[in-house]
């Protein structure tokens, strides 16, 4: 089937998320929709899938205008979607998930589970998947869960498949396997829309690339285009894609974490006897697929987890058991992984957010009163220094773009004397221009002699920033390796395996 979008426009109040977008995808083609998060890619695909209704424009399949009102109509028209966050019920089996919304029944009206099992086996055999129809989703690795999503779409005879940021939770090996599956689907005549912001993946599988920026199509390029060319189209100006840094000159050991264990509210051990050290003037990057204990580890360092055992020592001072405020006052700076939920107060102004952790301290407070002139002068200086683009320091931070919000968090944490800097997912959801700026600041912080921890699920970011790399899997540090360790080796470690012959630096 051939897919065509004509003049699709979607507004949310005054925000134009999609602005008269045209797109054409042929049968047996992988068409990549490339753009930074917030560019409007997912909104466009949600219109295509019937999750949103367009304000203007139309969707055509084989030249016929579609007038569906919901996902059910889109599915019946032959459109399938593999979401970034899987739409599966963890406590159901593979076959049971396959049936959801399209339940086959026997003559007596009973659910026909054997038919669903047979369908799983048939599609799995066609694509070489090794999937047990009776396996519980919660027991399957992430990469296999994604295959279940693909099987679910194909079981409904999808001839047009949308992959929305499909590699966000995959190891490098699982990503390579997904690319192979996409090529198989292409060879079978499936039209594929591949949404991503990762240039390496685009070059790997795309037949054509459409670049979207700020809700508009800004051009189409071939996969042979350079990364610099594609990145420049994504953000509207030239960017530096590589991190420029000199080799580290580590000093004495500053942070020592020993036998750290974190138990969550359900009684599950999410960080399991983790030990590592970070020296002054080095970046230790913690890699791993999301959900393997990285979040809980960083929160434990800052007193944000309740059930914690082990020791955390910064320059000889024990941080374990301290309040969050006491940890911050010890010189620890922290960029949380969810800036909107944990890093900012969206209703507060830029100026107010810049002093969230020291509003009570001089020079911002005197005799219990906030010194507004001092605060505004400080905020204006930091807006300039950290390139925060906004009308004024009194602008509510919730009105800023993701990149500018992250710069506010970065400015706050780097505007005081630090003994440790921890950045969790520091560039998640940002355009390449903001990523370049934040990477420069992280490296500059290291170069002042401060120990730095960067936690990221983006392997390219880990490799670019790290002096050493620790890999976490199911709450355990599998090993700590050099920054020049191959992607293949890191991928195996992210799956829980320490390859033979690889030396651990821990």
TrEMBL record:
One of its GO terms (molecular function) is ATP binding. Transmembrane segments: none annotated. CDD domains: ABC_Carb_Monos_I (cd03216), ABC_Carb_Monos_II (cd03215). It is found in: Cell membrane. GO terms for cellular component: plasma membrane. Its main location: membrane. It comes from the Bacteria. It is a peripheral membrane protein. SUPFAM superfamilies: P-loop containing nucleoside triphosphate hydrolases. Keywords: ATP-binding, Cell membrane, Membrane, Nucleotide-binding, Repeat, Sugar transport, Translocase, Transport. This is Simple sugar transport system ATP-binding protein.
